[in-house]
Amino acid sequence: MTDLIITISLAYLLGSIPFGLLLTKAAGFGDIRNIGSGNIGATNVLRTGNKWLAALTLLLDGAKGLAAVVLATKFYPDAGRIAGIAALLGHMFPLWLKFKGGKGVATAIGAITALSWPLGIGIMFAWLVFAFLFRYSSLAAIISLGLSPLCAASMGNPQLVRFTLIIAILVIAKHASNIRRLWKGQEPKIGKDKNAAPSP
User: Structural domain of residue 143, as residue ranges?
Assistant: First the structure.
């Protein structure tokens, strides 16, 4: 039990590293929370106009989820899924930012990829397709991760189904404000409104 608590705590702390905030500050863009949606994720970092910074944020946020699962599995074989969820919660509710973090898409995909790389790649591909078709990052994330439990079920892996279902519920719930804006036709498209004020 002690080992499990330590694993969960370390995974949470790893997930809570706000790379988007740290990178934009280091690059001289100030606090990313004062730009666009106010989110610390890669999509909002893109609104600074720096694509490389956004790509690096995406990579590092994904690496948090992947590393948490891989490291936990290495030391405690049955703890990978728990560590992945803990890392995702760390990104969404980081202690350092008064529990106001990102939407968790990249971290979620990183954790899923660590457990099943074919499924992880499939989710990434689905996100790219839906993002290209609709130009909404949030909608692409909701659809691609929302479909992940069904894809896991087709692979005949009950544990992966349960894991992806929890991940999908957490990510979609965190997108509640995006869903409201999508419904009202007020959601900004990818690469737009880089100078907009933070949305509620």
Answer: 2-184
Give the number of C-alpha atoms closer than 13 A to the C-alpha of residue 55, restricted to the C-beta side.
Answer: 3
By CB neighbour count within 10 A (0-12 exposed, 13-18 middle, 19+ buried), where does 1 fall?
A: exposed
On whether residue 195 sits in a domain, the answer given is: no
List, for residues 156-168, the tens digit of each pLDDT value: 999 999 999 999 9
Q: Is residue 59 assigned to a domain?
A: yes
**Signed CA dihedral, 183, 184, 186, 189: sign only:** positive
For the chain, the domain total comes to 1
> If pLDDT is split at 50, 70 and 90, which confidence band does 193 have?
low
Q: What is the pLDDT of residues 107-157, one digit of tens each?
A: 999 999 999 999 999 999 999 999 999 999 999 999 999 999 999 999 999
SS3 at position 145: helix
- As to burial, measured by CB atoms within 10 angstroms (0-12 exposed, 13-18 middle, 19+ buried), residue 179 is middle
The pLDDT confidence band at residue 192, using thresholds 50, 70 and 90, is low
The residue length of the chain stands at 200
User: Is 194 contained in some domain?
Assistant: no
User: Is the residue at 197 inside a domain?
Assistant: no
DSSP state letters, 17-71: --HHHHHHHHTT---GGGSTT---SHHHHGGGT-HHHHHHHHHHHHHHHHHHHHH
- What's the one-letter identity of residue 39? N
The pLDDT assigned to 191 comes to 62
